[in-house]
Amino acid sequence: MRATSTPTTFVLVHGAWCGGWCYARVAQVLRSRGHTVFTPTLTGQGERAHLISGAINLSTHIADVLGVFHCERLNDVVLAGHSYGGMVITGVADRIAGKIKALAYLDAFVPEDDQSLFDINIPANTQRFLAGVGALGGLAVPVPPAAYFGVNAADAALVDALATPFPLGCFSEKLKLTGAYRSVAKCLYVHGTMLPRESPFRPFYERAIAAGWSAHALSCGHHVMLDEPERTAELLESLA
Amino acid sequence: MRATSTPTTFVLVHGAWCGGWCYARVAQVLRSRGHTVFTPTLTGQGERAHLISGAINLSTHIADVLGVFHCERLNDVVLAGHSYGGMVITGVADRIAGKIKALAYLDAFVPEDDQSLFDINIPANTQRFLAGVGALGGLAVPVPPAAYFGVNAADAALVDALATPFPLGCFSEKLKLTGAYRSVAKCLYVHGTMLPRESPFRPFYERAIAAGWSAHALSCGHHVMLDEPERTAELLESLA
Amino acid sequence: MRATSTPTTFVLVHGAWCGGWCYARVAQVLRSRGHTVFTPTLTGQGERAHLISGAINLSTHIADVLGVFHCERLNDVVLAGHSYGGMVITGVADRIAGKIKALAYLDAFVPEDDQSLFDINIPANTQRFLAGVGALGGLAVPVPPAAYFGVNAADAALVDALATPFPLGCFSEKLKLTGAYRSVAKCLYVHGTMLPRESPFRPFYERAIAAGWSAHALSCGHHVMLDEPERTAELLESLA
Prior knowledge:
homotrimer, 10 helices, about 15% strand
């Protein structure tokens, strides 16, 4: 067993069409090393899919995570977000920067003030997602297949089984930022290089390098926590 | 360190005006012994308090917990419920009895078919709760103070700080049961004997003894997981 | 043809388990005499029954009627409410007393500040209604049969066919009143004396007499607009 780092609290936020379940292995590794881990599921997704409604937006999901900090009395947290989760953790960090020790973007969007995910995704992706909402009542984005994300063969069936439509307002709401989140001292970027199409995350990875973040490229698909759970846990633990 | 039991999965369901946070200490103890623990927060409570609405009922909360079983692919689970949580776990067990190894009622209501919590609480309590809803829009039950539950002095302020109004429909909806939940082999009852008023839970504890359950009385208030976290964890672990 | 009174605007608010349809005959009579008549259906009832949800309360219904005043630019209105509709029109009048010429309570509840309908109904009725909600998810009150209201034989089948469950929050929310509604100059009470059980409306009728309102007893059931449409229209017109 490797040397244990300082016991630290991790809050791991999943991406679109996903749930806290995607972090099960990473959480197990971190807990086995003495850390405290929360993997909240965002409203309308995963085991909260029965709450799906057109009233859910990015602000709802930011409130979901702020609630965990409030109710669990958290401080000095490593806050990670995967993919869309990068929108959520940036919004959370802007509200309670003083409680966050480090931000970890796992192949995630890194928004600036007044940007929605639709604004910073590749236009063809935004168009694809918008084109799909009409068939689901206009307020939810259909699930892309696991193959779209280059999920490893062993986990593809699970990802397809658990994915449910994603609330449109989470992609369309522009995030308002005061800039307070920039006071978080440490930032990490983990990029999965094997997406079977143009990656919207590569520019964020390159910007992370340019900004002097701890930046890492893994030879795997977009779901780094499923494709490379040990390595992802190790990188998260480097922030402890 | 004590001998470790078989690594087991625990799902711990909180009561009214509470949240997953109340199980933090019990979860920590169980995880330190190698167990996997989920402490889902019910919709409209704790860190999900921003989702409060009149549309939430007992069925919503049963769906919350069924979702955890589905998304985390759980089996062979020890399922515990505190207070109102006894309504929820009975409903969950009736739907997926085959995935449940044992049921643990922590100073909880134990409903039968076609009963609501209002039906099986002491009438004066039901009247008190109903009398309070009118001032909150008619659809949420105001928070009683921690003293009402006899919470220990050290935790009373936390309980008061995190409690939020409870959805009326969770108390008023009658639970429909097929009886399938009766096939769960092991049942445990833990009763807190120090409630500073007539206890609605004492009859359930006595019935548990009569039915041959593993039944235990602790000299503490209603929130056994806060007042006696080590002992509560130990009793839960006896079901592993 | 009778001498026509001043052309006046009437807003007629129905009771629980009903809809604007119950005023069809009364509206026809009043319009034939040159008046303007609105018979809004409250959210979750009648032709709006598809909107039923646990999120509806008395405040919702007050907003329904305030909306008609706003969008139709109404002033100098005779505002009538039947049964539960008395709760609604009192709340509306408290908000926009200056736009209301007269209030007409048709066998209706007449609430005071901080009272819910449950508070001022006969306790046995409140208990009956509450006992019924559990089977409908805890948030809607089942429909009593037309016979419960003493509806005339010719209309009973229609009333039974169109009635749908009523949102619990409309009965349980306490009405907050500033007292501004008391500035409405004219008030009318119409009581149906033939209810086949103890009438919760008789005390309001007696209080109306004591207060010097225009008060009338009709030898018919609770649904005076169905049992005595001509007479009801005539009494309403007396306020024009």
